[in-house]
Amino acid sequence: MKVSAEEARRIALAAQGFDGPRPSSPPSTREVVQAIDRLGAVQIDSVNVLVRSHYLPLFSRLGPYDVSLIDRAASGRGRRLFEYWGHEASLLPVKLQPLLRWRMERAARGSGVYGGLVRWARRHRPFIETVFAEIRERGPLAASELSNGGKSRGAWWGWSAGKHALEWLFWAGRVTTATRRRFERVYDVPERALPSRVLATPTPTDDVAQRSLVRIAARALGVATARDLRDYFRLDAADTKRRIEELVEARLLVPAEVEGWREPAYVDPRVRAPEQITARALVSPFDSLIWARERTERVFGFRYRIALYTPAAERTHGYYVLPFLLGDRLVARVDLKADRQDRVLRVPAAYAEDGVDPKMVAPALADELAEMAGWLGLDKVAVAARGDVARALRGVVR
């Protein structure tokens, strides 16, 4: 199968849910869950410059929606979503839990978990079991609520001993997230936190589970290299290679040659290549459309790095920079900040991509910013003068 570069771009956008108009009325829980089911995973991250990262991908696809729909879908015994390591920490459809038990079992053996936590767990087995017993008896509990969890040593990775133990148990599947309070994980045992029908689902063998995950990745990406498929759920290279071979033999993946791609590609047999994409969206740095930076450059000709992890002197476009999707192209980079105190959506900078007319971008971007500001409960949009689009944008933002 041969695919042109333009077709690959449209296939990728359609697979990610950018192939149709946004709902004309506020999305329901069903539509929200269906959108996440289509993606297979939504990444969670603590950065809150604009809005928590797991809320933004659905705004990009559905427009303004009630974020509490996600929170409710990810808590309670009737939940539709659960947290685990999909692509990094992720919200996933709860039906995927059996497909990730092999990862939990490997984690329990010390495989597939980042090394620092493995080494810590080996030294603190009795303490981990004490923490697990407390969750089982008293849960749901946050790390800060453990009776002997110790103190944290600052933000980010300055975890307390109790948090280390809970994260190990979380990796191993012995505890899960019951809910979140002010973004802090609240842990409980799966028997109380997950639907009984999910827990009763037989555990598939590793190969069956991994084939399912590769198929979900293929559906969500539309067209992908082996590396793309592997990265979506962070699978091992050897496992991915075998699973792709098996899926091709079963005709559940179709080999493809994509114009301009150096590596062989694969497409889902049900792939759609719309004749036109009319999307308009600001895309989160943690959106699955642009997870793999090399793929983003290959598909869209758009070289992207998350600037907030870059030293200030090396940032070229701002601090929290979102690509702007218009039609089937990423046409601009927009630095954004939600100023909640002054109720303003601030645009410190906005730049057009090479060859893109800033005046063409500005009206559509202004509309998107106004819609985003309303969704975030902010009263207005304030555009600074930095960047060629910013200059054009200030003329159309009211």
SSE blueprint:
Layout: E1 2-3, H1 5-15, H2 29-39, E2 42-43, H3 56-62, H4 68-73, E3 81-86, E4 88-93, H5 101-108, H6 115-123, H7 125-138, E5 141-142, H8 161-171, E6 176-181, E7 184-188, H9 190-193, H10 196-199, H11 206-221, E8 223-225, H12 226-232, H13 237-249, E9 254-258, E10 265-267, E11 279-282, H14 293-300, E12 321-327, E13 329-339, E14 344-352, H15 358-375, E15 380-386, H16 388-394
Parallel strand pairs: 1-9, 14-15
Antiparallel strand pairs: 2-4, 3-4, 5-7, 6-7, 8-10, 9-10, 11-12, 12-13, 13-14
Quick summary:
The chain is an alpha+beta fold and 398 residues long.
Can you put this structure into words, describing what you see?
This protein has helices at residues 5-15, 29-39, 56-62, 68-73, 101-108, 115-123, 125-138, 161-171, 190-193, 196-199, 206-221, 226-232, 237-249, 293-300, 358-375, 388-394, and strands at 2-3, 42-43, 81-86, 88-93, 141-142, 176-181, 184-188, 223-225, 254-258, 265-267, 279-282, 321-327, 329-339, 344-352, 380-386. Strand 3 (81-86) and strand 4 form a beta hairpin. The longest helix has 18 residues, at 358-375. It is 39% helix and 20% strand. With 398 residues, it is of the alpha+beta class. Helix 7 (125-138) packs across helix 8 (161-171), helix 11 crosses helix 12 and helix 12 (226-232) crosses helix 13. The model has no long low-confidence stretch (mean pLDDT 94).
